[in-house]
Write a structure and sequence with these properties.
By secondary structure, the protein is α/β, with parallel strands linked by helices. It folds into two domains: about 200 residues, Alpha-Beta Complex (2-enoyl-CoA Hydratase, Chain A, domain 1); about 45 residues. About 45% of the residues lie in helices and about 20% in strands. It contains eleven helices and 13 strands. The strands form three sheets. It has a seven-stranded mixed beta sheet with strand order 1-2-3-5-8-10-13, sandwiched between helices. Strand 2 and strand 3 form a beta hairpin. The chain is globular, with a radius of gyration of 19 Å. The termini are close together. It holds the Pfam family ECH_1. This is enoyl-CoA hydratase. Keywords: Lyase. Its EC number is 4.2.1.17.
């Protein structure tokens, strides 16, 4: 799809959202100095997700940072020092809710990682459909060093991407993974020579001719492969494919293929 001639922008102190194409919403985090995921930043991210849901035509949401050297540094440790066990649980629930919303959205999400994505910042990226990384990216889950564990989906999403052994190594050593290793082990899907955002936009170009419902269904089926039995997974695949056939997406795709033309998906 071609670039929109009019770009709409919505700004706050913490997050800026911009429709940069007819089908792309860019979400930029700007909570200095390192995008620590304080409750107010999580609320702003949730509002950005709502904007994506409410904006007609949005197929892709790119999450990035305006801060030099950081995507997001993780949970807000200063905030955690001021709260009791009940508030800590509520804070964790808020982080998990944002990540779950991104993972289960009816759009494709891309985390553009320039600089550090640590702790909750990496967990946010893990919830996205795709991750692109620039040469300065550093990815890690350092919670073991402060007596915690990655509690916003990190212990579950990471091994689904990189396997049990690599996930245990990353979680228990609390080390930072550099860009090339992250690509080699499947933690990121694209490596950018320059900007991770540019790489994310190139990825959008690769995907933009495909059916959004088919991509969302495909991502969910692939994700379920790690948590379902083969029988359950095939049943999900079957119901998803049949749903795509009945909603008209497959009908248009097949007709376009037979007619040797580009499909016109909704």
């Amino acid at each position: 799809m071609t670039d929109s001639t009019e770009h709409s922008t919505d700004s706050s102190d913490l997050v800026t959202t911009e429709v940069i194409r007819d089908d792309v919403l860019k979400v930029t985090m700007s909570r200095g100095p390192a995008n620590a995921l304080a409750p107010e930043l999580l609320s702003a991210l949730d509002e950005a997700c709502q904007q994506a849901d409410d904006t007609p035509g949005i197929k892709f949401v790119i999450f990035e940072s305006s801060l030099e050297g950081f995507f997001a540094a993780g949970a807000d440790i200063k905030h955690m020092r001021t709260i009791d066990a009940r508030s800590f649980a509520e804070y964790g629930d808020q982080m998990r809710a944002v990540n779950d919303r991104i993972e289960n959205a009816n759009w494709i999400s891309i985390a553009a990682l320039d600089g550090m994505a640590l702790g909750g910042g990496l967990e946010l990226a893990l919830a996205c459909t795709f991750r692109t990384a620039g040469p300065r990216a550093r990815l890690g889950l350092p919670e073991a060093g402060i007596g915690l564990l990655p509690g916003a989906g990190g212990t579950q999403r990471l091994p689904r991407l990189v396997g049990h052994g690599r996930a245990v190594d990353i979680v228990l050593t609390a080390r930072q993974v550099r860009t090339q290793e992250a690509f080699d082990i499947g933690l990121v899907q694209r490596v950018a020579e320059g900007s991770a955002l540019d790489s994310a936009l190139s990825l959008v170009e690769e995907l933009s001719g495909n059916s959004l419902p088919a991509m969302v269904a495909g991502a969910r089926c692939v994700g379920a492969a790690h948590s379902m039995s083969l029988t359950e997974g095939i049943a999900l695949e079957k119901s998803s494919e049949e749903g795509l056939f009945t909603n008209g997406e497959a009908e248009e795709g097949i007709a376009a293929f037979v007619g040797k033309r580009a499909p016109k998906f909704a």
